[in-house]
Amino acid sequence: MDKIQSDCPYPGCFFCVMKEANPSKRRASVLKFFRELPSQDDDGQVLPISGLWNTAMAHPNDPEFINLGIFECMSALIWKGLKNRRWLAHDQNIYIPYYAAHIIGSYTMNMEEFAERAVRAGVIPPLVELLRGRLTWVEQRVAVRALGHLATYPSTFPAVADHGEVLELAIQLASSSLEIVYSHFYQFVDRRLGYHCDLLTRGMGGVEMESRKAEEWASQLQCWSLQLINCFAFKPEFLHDICKADFLIKLPGMWGGLVNENSPAGVGLLRTICQNKVGRGHVANIPCTVEALCNIARSSDDWQYMAVDCLIWLVQDASTCHKVIDKVAPTLIDLANISTLGDYKRLGDTIVTVLQECMQLSGNSRGTISNQTKAEIDELLRSKQSLKLEKSMPKEDLHIKQAAALVVKLEGNSLFSSGNIAGAAEKYSEALALCPMKSKKERVVLYSNRAQCYLLLQQPLAAISDATRALCLHSPVNRHAKSLWRRAQAYDMLGLAKESLLDAILFINECSQSNDPDLSLKQNKVPDYAERLVKKQMRAAWLFREAALKHGGVHCEGDASDAFGQEADDSEWETASESDAENDARGEADDDTEWKNDGHQEDFCEKS
User: Fold this and answer.
1) Residue 453, exposed/middle/buried by CB under 10 A (0-12, 13-18, 19+)?
2) Where is this region: Disordered (predicted)?
3) Which of 14, 48, 291, 542 gives the lowest tally of CB atoms within 10 Å of its CB?
4) Confidence class of residue 15 from pLDDT cuts 50, 70 and 90?
5) How far apart are CA 224 and CA 137, in angstroms?
6) Which of 387, 338, 378, 344 is nearest to 358 (CA)?
7) Distance CA 503, CA 514 (A)
8) Does residue 313 contact residue 274 with C-beta atoms inside 8 Å?
9) How far apart are alpha carbons 229 and 235 in whole angstroms?
10) Residue 445 to residues 21, 448, 481: CA-CA distances in angstroms?
């Protein structure tokens, strides 16, 4: 390549080529550069490749380099790294396959036309080799990203699917990615490859930064693998390969974590699977997966609506309804007061209709729905009928019902204050039966107070149900602070760390924004009990926890301090649901004061 700048020591320097003022000359020079680069062994090749990486990230829709052969060049460079280990180990060439695969992924993530050009340039075979793990997990991450983009488009999906091992490799990677990153990078600081550390931190951080970024990249490796599988899941012919029991069991537990919360991860793939009758049949046969979907549907997870979709489709399908209805119906009933969620504008009405149709369907066959489930659905239908009747009821009658409910609720508060928790729960139930359905604020309080009673009575499932109903009735949805905290405690009792963590974080957020002096944070300080629960659940829900337990990074259940490199006082990790429940029982029920200066909860019964 001709020298463009006389003061540049590198003949054919790419950066000098890009400074060429004449567009025609510049295009010719860039074209020549892309053609010749894979066959050259000069030092410093990583510099123009990293420059191209920056350009692809910043301008992924710019066709200039696409038309000049960048895909052919990147494909050849990956092959060179795979076949010529001496070249790969020379200078800084170890970085080049990573950058090359990343460039392919960036230029194909938005434009189907670019993806078609990439396929014609032969990028898929070298990407598949990286996906196999021919180099390291770092290259696997960018390879699965690029293949996921190529599989997204109808015109290029067949080319990806023609490589039959891609789906199997993606499933294996989704299942093992966290363990791979933990054991190959995170666990032993002194064994970390230098170029991995450089790529993770861009030279801007030390060991702590490397570890944080490794968790983020591990999550991306898993989530991008799931995204690639998701492209196959839209095709019925691949569902039997995807819907293996052991994989479906693991799927609900695959989530982006706090480091990658923008990915629907496992529940997103389950939603795609459940859109198809074949997929629903497989999911319905895995009770623990259905139960996990119920937990996600009740939770404050951003992807709650996806789990709700799965449950509704499972119940609507006559071939799966009888298998799941007893597990799914209680969850849907708890959610029946939500108006808007995801794409649903009248979710509650949809739930009522679906359950009503299910009841009618069960009338034609015996034993498909348990008597308890039938009773719960009947109660829901009666409540909706009561709401309709209230619309034509005189206001005076509604006020009388509301006043009667208030009297009973105050009786419940009195019983709670005296320590008669079971009696208080019964009174709150009576008050709910009296309280008009349209009195949503009052019903939020009653459900939330009864949830607290169930917590103290060590009935976490009932507490979750009532707290969820309160959150669904509240406006905005899922933002009633006291119910979030109660449900966080109940999830903690059941060992559901992720769900407890999300509710606890939302609880703190609501307190920070609240004008209620009983809820607002004192001097912007998070209450000690909330901080304890969040720390506990962050350890329990840590993405690497299972891998660390397997590889010796965490020595026993409930102790992840070694993996985090922090000292933990066992006394600090007292179960919040136990310690706070004791404080609640001593509270006064005739005022709303919840938070005292010592950070403990003194009263969880609301009077308004």
Assistant:
1) buried
2) 559-608
3) 291
4) confident
5) 13
6) 378
7) 16
8) yes
9) 10
10) 71, 5, 11
C-beta neighbour count of 203 within 10 angstroms: 8
> What is the share, in percent, of the chain residues with pLDDT greater than 70?
87
Q: Half-sphere exposure (CA, 13 Å, Cβ side) for 543?
A: 33
Q: How far apart are CA 367 and CA 336, in angstroms?
A: 24
Q: Is 80 exposed, middle or buried (0-12, 13-18, 19+ CB in 10 A)?
A: buried
* Cβ(607)–Cβ(483) below 8 Å: no
Distance, CA of 46 to CA of 3 (rounded, Å): 19
Q: What are phi and psi of 601, to 5 degrees?
A: -85, 130
Distance in angstroms (rounded) separating the CA atoms of residues 459 and 452: 10
Q: Please enumerate in sequence order all residues whose Cβ is within 8 A of that of 242, keeping only pairs 6 or more positions apart, or say none.
A: 167, 171, 229, 232, 233, 269, 273, 279
Long-range contacts from 525-531, C-beta under 8 angstroms, 24+ separation: 527/595, 527/599, 528/598, 528/599, 528/600, 529/576, 529/579, 529/580, 529/599, 529/600, 529/601, 530/485, 530/504, 530/576
- Secondary structure, 3-state, 353-422: HHHHHHHHHHCCCCCCCCHHHHHHHHHHHHHHHHHHHHCCCCHHHHHHHHHHHHHHHHHHHHHHHCCCHH
DSSP letter, residue 285: T
Alpha carbons 557 and 581: distance in angstroms, whole number:
24
Count Cα neighbours of 35 within 13 Å in the Cβ-side half-sphere: 9
Q: What is the mean pLDDT of residues 314-339?
A: 95
The answer to pTM > 0.85 is yes
**What band does 8 get if pLDDT is binned at 50, 70 and 90?**
low
* Closest-CA residue to 94 (of 48, 45, 56, 143): 45
The residue written with tokens 């007292």 in the block is 574
- The better pLDDT of the pair 516, 240 is held by 240
Residues β-bridged to residue 559: 556
pLDDT at 328 over 60: yes
Rounded-to-integer distance, Cα 528 and Cα 530, Å? 5
pLDDT digits (tens, 9 = 90+) for 41-94: 888 889 899 999 999 999 999 999 999 999 999 999 999 999 999 999 999 999
Please give the full DSSP string across 216-257, using - where no structure is assigned.
HHHHHHHHHHHHHHHHHHTSGGGHHHH--HHHHHHGGG---T
Nearest to 528 by CA among 573, 585, 568: 573
Between CA 285 and CA 517 the distance in angstroms is 49
| Distance set, CA 80 to CA 99, 132, 273, 448 (Å) | 13, 16, 38, 63
